[in-house]
Amino acid sequence: MKVQRLDHINIRTPDIDATIQFYSELLGLRARNTLSMFSSSQSQWLYDHNEQPIIHLSTDSNASMIRQWPIPLLAAGDSRSPSSQTLPIHHVALCCTGKKEMLERLKTMGADFATNELQALKMTQFFTRDPHGILLELNFPAEE
Q1: pLDDT digits (tens, 9 = 90+) for 27-67
Q2: Measured between alpha carbons, how far is residue 100 from residues 45, 126, 140 in Å?
Q3: Chain-wide mean pLDDT for the chain?
Q4: Burial 7-19, CB ≥16 within 10 A → b, else e
Q5: Strand 114-118 to 123-129 pairing
Q6: Strand partners, 129
């Protein structure tokens, strides 16, 4: 048995429409109704450009969303470390292309973000948070 790749993540949210808007604007993901017994107001899938479902949204009235944007990214030594804000899942990393376009989207959205250049891996990373406080790591090949 071998694990091939990450299939999807599930985000439980009190506001599916706002979550869809965020991921559509930032990452260009497209929402589709789920093929299940739930209505689109209870469950949605977000698809990448390859038509793969990668984020499953489901309603949860007990879930919380951070209503203020931009969401501050915290420095490594800050006592309010990101790990304490994201519960057990620290971050979600996505392989991406279109680094310049993403940089423009982050700026247009007024998102607080950090950039990390990993010369040894030939990679540029952008870090930001979604409206639920989930840390997103967006990885781009350095040659872009």
Answers
A1: 999 998 766 656 667 789 999 999 999 999 988 777 777 65
A2: 26, 11, 10
A3: 81
A4: eeeebebebbeeb
A5: antiparallel
A6: 135
Are 71 and 114 contacting, i.e. CB atoms less than 8 angstroms apart?
Answer: no
Determine contact, residues 8/55, Cβ cutoff 8 Å: yes
* Structure-token pair, residue 122: 């030939």
Closest CA to 8 of 130, 86, 88, 92: 92
Tell me the β-bridge partners of 79. Answer: none
User: DSSP for 111-141?
Assistant: ---EEEEEGGGTEEEEEEE-TT--EEEEEEE
DSSP 8-state symbol, 119? G
CA distance 38 to 140: 35
The tens digit of pLDDT for each residue in 100-130 reads 999 999 999 998 899 988 888 899 999 998 9
**Segment (H or E) for 89:** none
CA distance between the termini of the chain: 35
Query: Residues for the chain: how many in total?
Result: 144
H or E stretch at 19: helix 16-27
